Amino acid sequence: MQVNGAVASDLAQKVSYGDVVHLDFEELRASPRAAVLLHKPYGSPAAIVHPPELHVVMPLRLIERGAELLMADPELARRIADPRHPQQQLRDGRRRLSYAGLAVEDLEPGEWRPLGHKELERLRRSVHLPPRA
User: What is the C-alpha separation between 7 and 60, in angstroms, rounded?
Assistant: First the structure.
């Protein structure tokens, strides 16, 4: 694996927006349908090893923890964050237990999981976007 042309010895190395990541000499890019749910730990940014095309939707502050949504589809991300399309949140103090109907109850802090096709289509419907083929 290479990050910005330098060989990375740690495969779990975090990358930043704009970094170029190659695996077996192939540049990695997020699918336009890619999205993940991250259980953001307290005191850390929403940073996971991911292609830079994934953007945090409705980020939590550093003093908060819980459900963070990262998406590659910029139109869907903008719509979800738009107050004209309010998304349900379940909070407990400084912890966001769920966002847009996606809960982190099965994830330990720092863990993440990809969103499935049905979850992405439900999100698209919630912000009045047509389904993807």
Answer: 32
